[in-house]
Amino acid sequence: MFEQDRIVVRFDKRSHNLILREAALDESNQKMKRITLFSWGYWGWGNSVKKFVEATDAIESARGYGSPIFADIRIRRSVRAKGFNGNAFEKIVRAERYVWLKDLGNQAVADGAGGIEIANPKAAADLLDLAIKSAEDRRRVIFFCACQIPARCHRSKVARLVLREAKKRGLNLEIIEWPGGDPLEMNVEAPKTAIAALSRGLKYIPIGNRVDLARLGSVPWGSTVNLQNGSQSEPFVTGPACFQVSQWYLPVLNLDDEVDRWRKVNGYVARSSV
Ligand SMILES: [Zn+2]
């Protein structure tokens, strides 16, 4: 009996040390592991919310993640965009994938003043907590506002606050405008009408209603796509595909600058806490 007790004690001590060691490893893994948080502007998506959600789910799934969680950082939700007015967006993605962080809204908008003043900067910790909690389920968070250009929106300021909080906690956090990634060059088979649209100078190139969303929905901002049809190949600078009325389009970005600079100035480059 006595002998057995000693064995038990010894075993416990050993497993206790093991547990401690594993916990320390876990903690350092947690600290080293990079968490990615996306920012996004719903500009242009007001009538196609379901398509946007469909695209994000396909893209994140292809990247090995679960469906993303949405953090709404608007100070108020009464807007003209149908899919984002009131709780319309929340109803589509459902409550478990949606959180309204009103505290991270732009108080200046509510006050009718110009500029950017985050309602409660401390709430940046809540957004970081959400990103950490979601990462445990291999899901990532997209925080959003309405504005098109990230650098001109208060989400840029919110990103700074969240990165500062992550740095304070010793976490490796990266924030990038959805869908993320560095510009690349890719070939896309397209009908002649798409090439014709490009040569006519249209701002959106129609690519049909059955597209590979994981691929074309995640085109990094500032990428070059070669539209191909037979022996024809027409390059243009673009970003992620968007949906309008009845089909998908690739936007034509007429940059007045070289791509890397354009990305930097407008807020499309990843920022990191380490
Ligand atoms: Zn904004």
Task: List the defining traits of the structure above.
2 domains, 12 strands, binds zinc ion, 274 residues, Cobalt-precorrin-4 Transmethylase, domain 1, 3-stranded mixed sheet, single chain, alpha/beta
Strand content: 15-25%
**Major β-sheet, in short?**
6 strands, mixed
End-to-end separation: 55 Å
Instruction: Give the overall average pLDDT.
Output: 91
Question: Ranges with pLDDT <50 over ≥5 residues?
Answer: 1-10
Q: What gyration radius follows from the Cα positions, in whole Å?
A: 23 Å
Question: Would you write up a description of this structure?
Answer:
- By secondary structure, the chain is an alpha/beta fold.
- It folds into 2 domains: 29-178, Cobalt-precorrin-4 Transmethylase, domain 1, CATH 3.40.1010; 185-256.
- The chain is 38% helix and 21% strand.
- The protein has 9 helices and 12 strands.
- It has helices at 2-32, 49-62, 88-93, 107-111, 124-136, 154-168, 192-199, 213-216, 259-266; strands spanning 35-41, 69-72, 98-100, 141-145, 173-177, 185-189, 204-208, 223-229, 232-238, 242-244, 247-251, 271-272.
- A 6-stranded mixed beta sheet has the order 3-2-4-1-5-12.
- α5 crosses α6 (154-168).
